[in-house]
Design a protein that fits this description.
two-stranded antiparallel ribbon; alpha/beta; single chain; Rossmann fold; 2 domains; globular
Amino acid sequence: MSFLCGLPILECVYCLGCTRWVWKKCLYTAGYESENWGLATAEEFEPIPRFCRVILAVYEDDIRNPQWAPEGGYGINPDWIILRKDYGDNQGCVTPYMIYVDHDRGEIILAAAEWVFDAEWEVLRKLIAEYPTYMLTFVGHSLGAGVVALLTMIALHNREKLGLLRNKIKCYAIAPARCMSLNLAVRYADVINSIVLQDDFLPRTTTAMETVYRSLLCWPCLLCLLCLKDTCTLEEKKLRDPRRLYAPGRLYHIVERKPFRFGRFPPVVRTAVPVDGRFDHIVLSCNATSDHAILWIERESRQALDLMLEKDRHMDIPAEQKMVRQKSLAREHSQEYRAALQRAVALDIPQAYSPSSYGTFHEIDIEEDSGRSSGKSSLSHEKQSEGWNEFVGRMFEVDDTGQMVFKKTTP
């Protein structure tokens, strides 16, 4: 009898929790996530519209006679395309990809996936040997962005194979999937850059939401469970979960709409290396899918860059001062990166460690190069370096069907 009397109270608590969850979801806008981030500069944002056009060019049948070229064209020289393969050439292993050498800007650009590294690493090595001063840049969009972010990690682990230093490798992930643990997302923020347009759904889609999307027949039950889980799970516990994935690297957020306003505003680009608040909330917006389209991202990023350049022209900044600003920007990014690593340690993120107090990232390179190294980091709670194979063996196991799955319990 007493249990039955308590049911109305439980129902009220549950309804209040659901109301709070729906209220937060309905009033949450993407602009809140990056409102405290710094503004991006034209120098650091300049490659992004260009790389969007490179990704679009991959899908053209004839790059010399394009059918879907954006305004102003793709801006690439067809004679500088070293390699280009479609679905038939790669046996359906990956989406179409190409290797493009931009001699004007000194870049070797690979728009591809992990399978390509094993298939084309010899081509890359020869190009790097031929152009040793060029930057090796990986670019991708959507799921391909998540894949090139992982491919960048593989390239960093195989720098001897390519003959490159860490500062000669860059990755630009356009609208990426959540593909890295929080520790890796922060650790590789000096190399990997993620670009997100306003309300884009994919960088915010967790594995739990993927379950909801796949289970159309029991949405109410799953939404109720998600509501209870979100309400009762502490943020600190989410951050310490090694199975939870995040958007990789340094984040660039293009904001073009404001809450309770109609129409689009001049886009503003904000950037940071956050530890908490890495697009953790789904935004209930009618633009959640359209903001994921590469065409929209290219258009808005180009408009944002034009506004930055116009502002610089009005300010009439001398060339020497621009060079000073670039050096200052690199120093600020380095400090922000170090601060993010230290905050990850302070929040007790699994596998996180602090950078050296001498202003170098030498210990990061050592850990990547030696999977069996027994060296210690300069942390107060020192941890042994761990290789990729050991990490995979600790986090995954092989089931009866031969597939790799997450271990049910992690040490």
